[in-house]
Amino acid sequence: MGAEEDEGNRWPPWLKPLLKEKFFVQCQIHYDSHKSECNMYCLDCMNGALCSLCLAHHKDHQAIQIRRSSYHDVIRVTEIQKVLDITGVQTYIINSARVVFLNERPQPRPGKGVTNTCQVCERSLLDSFRFCSLGCKRVGTSKNFEKKTKKSAMAAALASASASDDSQSVINGSSNSSQSHGHGHEGRKTNNYKKQKLKVEEVQSFIPSTPPPTASNYRTGHRRKGIPHRAPLGGSIIDFFI
After folding, report:
1. Neighbours of 237 (CB within 10 A)
2. Are 100 and 89 in contact (CB under 8 A)?
3. In terms of pTM, does the model score above 0.90?
4. Beta bridge partner(s), residue 72
5. DSSP letters of 183-205?
6. Taking the C-alpha atoms of 18, 19, 25 and 28 in order, what is their torsion angle to the nearest 10 degrees?
7. What is the tens place of the pLDDT at every residue in 102-154?
C-alpha cells in the first residue's frame, strides 16, 4: 500500500489517464462541426479528450493541446514542462517546435553504432537522455521497474557465468577426447605395421633362396661356342669308289 502511494505522489494524477487517452477522434457532442476533432485535454477535469468547442466549458481550467507526428501523439515542450518534469526524456523538433512523445515507440532492432537506448523500450537515443517518451519515464522510474531491472541484470550475469563454465567444460572434454583419440590412432598404426611385417616375412619363407655361384656354374655360364668343323667333301667321294 505504501509503495502505491509513493508512486502516486511522484506523478500528477492526470498523467496516467492522459497517456491512455485516444486523441484525434470525432467529438460525440459536436460531431456535426468541422472542429470536432478531439486534440485537447483538461488537466483539472481529466474527463477524456476534448475538441476546441468543448473548451468553452473549461475556461478557468488548465488544458493542453496534443499534436500528431507520424501517427504518434506529441506535446510541445513549452506546454508540458510547466506542469511536469521531463528531465531525461529526449525531445524532437517537429514543424519548428520542440516536442516530446507521450508513449513509447519500440524499434525492431537498434541501428548500427547505437550506444544509448531507452531504458524501457530500447529505442535509439542521444547519449544525454534515458527515455524516449513520457510514458517510458513513468514506467522506468517506478520502484517495481527498478527492482525488475536489478533482478534481470543479476539473472543475466549468472546465466553468462554458467554459460562460460559450460563452454570451458566442453573445451576440456574435447581436448581430452582428442588426446585419447590420438593415442589410440598411434597404437593402431603400430599394430598394423607389425602385421604387415609378419606377412612379408611369411611370404619370403616360402620362396627358395638363390644358390651361391660355383666354379662349374661360372664356366658353364661363360663358355663361348666354338667354330663348327665340316668333313672334307673330296675324301668322302674317294672312299665311296674304292
Report:
1. 10
2. yes
3. no
4. 69
5. HHHHHHHHHHHHHHHHHHHHHHH
6. -40
7. 999 888 777 778 889 999 998 999 989 999 999 999 999 988 876 565 555 55
